[in-house]
Write a structure and sequence with these properties.
The complex is a heterodimer of chains A (373) and B (305). Chain A is mostly helical. Chain A is 72% helix and 3% strand. Chain A is globular. Chain B is mainly α and 305 residues long. The chains are: A mainly alpha (373), B mainly alpha (305).
Chain lengths: 373, 305
């Protein structure tokens, strides 16, 4: 068997062609958990380097990027496993963000801005971590209700259903003055979220997403993604599995929303609209939507490009004269780069696969997989 | 009585605009399975084509001062050229990619166009009156003054739809397009040229976008770099609830979305009128649940095992 695969392979020569045999239990564990471990290390390195530079603006950018990364991982849990493109998840982010504001703002601010809250919420103030978890749970609960309706749809109709859900939530929060301050800005959230907090959450969420994707539930959802009819025939409760992944991903995205609120300290309904939806979706698609590695890599690449182009927009010196991109140039650049990536890597940068290089068994499995498809 | 007529005219003219925009999206979906998020930006570009490309705060009229016939032709040419260019540069290389990739590609295109507009014209809204006579002339119907413009919008939509139907049913090119929408692979085997049919779809879609942009601009009197987006959102919804891939469906969907939101606007009690969009999109979810294939069935959406 081994010889067969070895002889039959026509792998491109790559710098990573050497492999490590996983034999000891420790190595086997490492191998099993490799993608989230690898990405945790990468994120840790990025955070350490940026914090080491000590640039406050860069630190803020990094925290913002890590929040987006968490949203993208949340999106991956649903989109990657169920195969349904969702436009609605930023709605859950908004639910989480406002739920956090209801809990952690000081009572004085709450009476001033959002007097519609029930007395218990108005007079009490909750700790940061509690509010993040509770906000995620609220988003998950809304997802359970909305999802039990929306997940009955499939394919493009389901995508549009989630889109309509986003529009419903957006329009509702925009008018719900006594709870959200409507179109005005809600201020006074305590600022707790920095890069270290986000790093912690991102690592936990990546492991969580990985465990879910490998569990029987994740595998059932994937089966329904690849062939709905066949998976039904094999006994997969398609609606139920989709609903589960919808709820799990809404929980993650809701927590990200709460962290987002505690990062900026201010909230507007307007920041949870189509632009944020599209940015996070593009990150997922550019990375490769069916793998955790794709979600993480896409978020890192797009965020880095954004920051690099921002530096260009500020301008730099060439021979004594300041060269800068005109306003809007950064976005034009990022759009064109995204198109180029999409055109040349249709299945995303990771081609929908996890990152598995150093282990012999996985290298073989990968060859076998690529031969099959 | 007069108030009801006013509501009916408003509903029909809004529905007509949505229907025209939805037709532009539906045409492309039929042939290419592409949900074109950049369609709203084609509409925006049509309106911006009327002025001189300049960064200043005022709109310097350019095509806007032409004779109406020349104006219409020039705008259509500009938008069609942009539509064809985006086909060539973006959608042709992505042709065999998955629906999600295509969709994100069209979003990236829309992002590029919007920010190009900011770069060239600046992001500030500019006021531009187009054919102000149209809103000034009013008819007295049942005691209410009805402006000419909404009636014109309804009329133009009717005429364009008849023309489109005639084109699709009775010309060789139209037949080829319908064949490609029905079964692209089979059509190609029978000698339909893929590039030609897809380009044709982009031309028609661009021309429709140009007409929408002129009518919309005449109604709005202001240029904004995101003016096409709301139209695109509703048109997109309309295409889906009408039945993806069916042109009749796009029209029916656009009309119903426009009519429902106008009626809700007029009929809801004032304290919950602000929540109108909640009801509109709630209804969309309801329609999706009751008829996931859309109001009008087409072969393209039927799932095959």
């Amino acid at each position: 068997m081994t010889a067969n695969i070895e002889s039959g392979k026509r792998r491109r020569p790559s710098p990573f062609n050497y492999t490590i045999e996983a034999k000891s239990p420790a190595m086997l564990t490492l191998r099993a958990w490799w993608p989230p471990i690898l990405w945790s290390i990468v994120l840790l390195l990025i955070v350490v380097i940026v914090m080491g530079l000590g640039n406050a603006t860069l630190h803020k950018t990094l925290t913002d990027a890590l929040i987006k990364l968490m949203v993208v991982v949340g999106l991956f849990v649903f989109i990657g496993n169920s195969g349904i493109l969702s436009f609605g998840h930023i709605g859950f982010m908004m639910i989480g963000a406002y739920a956090a504001a209801w809990q952690t703002c000081c009572p004085k601010t709450k009476k001033l801005f959002i007097p519609g809250l029930p007395d218990y919420l108005l007079t009490h103030q909750f700790p940061f971590m509690v509010s993040v978890i509770v906000s995620g749970l609220l988003a998950a609960f809304i997802a359970l209700i909305a999802g039990s309706v929306l997940m009955r749809l499939s394919g493009i109709a389901a995508s549009i259903g989630t889109f309509a859900f986003l529009m419903v939530m957006y329009a509702f929060y925009l008018r719900w003055d006594p709870w959200t301050r409507g179109a005005s800005t809600m201020t006074g959230l305590p600022v707790h979220t920095d890069s270290w907090v986000m790093l912690g959450f991102c690592v936990v969420v990546m492991f969580g997403a990985f465990v879910y994707a490998r569990s029987r539930y994740g595998l059932s959802a994937k089966a329904s993604r690849d062939d709905e009819v066949a998976s039904k025939a094999a006994g997969v409760n398609v609606v139920g599995q989709r609903l589960l992944s919808f709820v799990v991903s809404a929980f993650i995205v809701g927590m990200a929303g709460a962290l987002f609120g505690h990062f900026l300290g201010i909230l507007t309904v307007d920041s949870f609209g189509l632009p944020y939806t599209f940015i996070t979706l593009s990150m997922l698609v550019v990375g490769g939507m069916q793998s955790l590695s794709g979600a993480v890599l896409g978020a890192i690449v797009i965020s880095t490009l954004f920051e690099a182009l921002r530096q260009l927009e500020i301008g730099f010196n060439i021979g004594g004269s300041l060269v800068a991109l005109p306003g809007g140039g950064r976005e034009v650049g990022i759009g064109i780069l995204m198109l180029v990536i999409l055109i040349f890597r249709r299945n995303g940068l990771t081609a929908n696969q996890e990152v598995y290089w150093p282990f012999r068994g996985d290298a073989m499995a990968k060859t076998a997989m690529s031969r099959r498809s | 009585m007069g108030y009801i007529i006013q509501v009916i005219v408003d509903a029909l003219s809004l529905g007509s605009l949505y229907a025209l925009a939805a037709l532009g999206i539906g045409l492309l979906f039929g042939v290419l399975r592409l949900i074109n998020f950049a369609h709203g930006d084609f509409i925006t570009l049509g309106a911006y084509a009327l002025i001189v490309p300049a960064y200043g705060p005022d709109a310097i009229r350019f095509i806007a001062d032409f004779h109406p016939v020349a104006l219409i032709i020039c705008t259509i040419l500009v938008v069609v050229a942009i539509a064809l260019l985006s086909e060539l540069l973006v959608f042709r290389p992505l042709r065999y990619a998955s629906a999600a990739t295509l969709m994100v590609g069209s979003f990236a295109l829309s992002f590029v166009i919007q920010n190009l507009i900011i770069m060239i014209y600046s992001g500030r809204p500019k006021s531009l009156n187009l054919w102000s006579d149209l809103t000034a002339i009013k008819f007295d119907v049942g005691g209410v003054d009805i402006a000419l413009l909404p009636l014109l919008i309804i009329g133009v939509t009717m005429v364009l739809m008849v023309l489109l139907v005639l084109f699709l049913k009775h010309t060789p090119w139209g037949v080829q397009m319908r064949a490609a929408a029905e079964d692209f692979k089979m059509a190609r085997m029978l000698g339909v040229r893929a590039n030609f049919v897809i380009s044709l779809a982009f031309v028609l879609s661009g021309a429709l976008a140009a007409v929408v942009s002129l009518l919309f601009e005449a109604q709005l009197g202001i240029l904004m770099f995101r003016m096409g987006t709301p139209l695109m959102v509703f048109a997109f919804i309309a295409t889906v609830i009408g039945g993806m891939g069916s042109l009749v469906g796009s029209v029916v969907g656009g009309m119903s979305v426009g009519i429902v939101s106008s009626i809700l606007q007029a009929g809801l009690p004032s304290e919950i009128r602000g929540y109108r969009d909640v009801f509109v999109f709630g209804l969309v979810i309801l329609v999706l649940l009751l008829r996931p294939q859309g109001i009008v069935l087409s072969r393209a959406t039927r799932e095959r095992v």
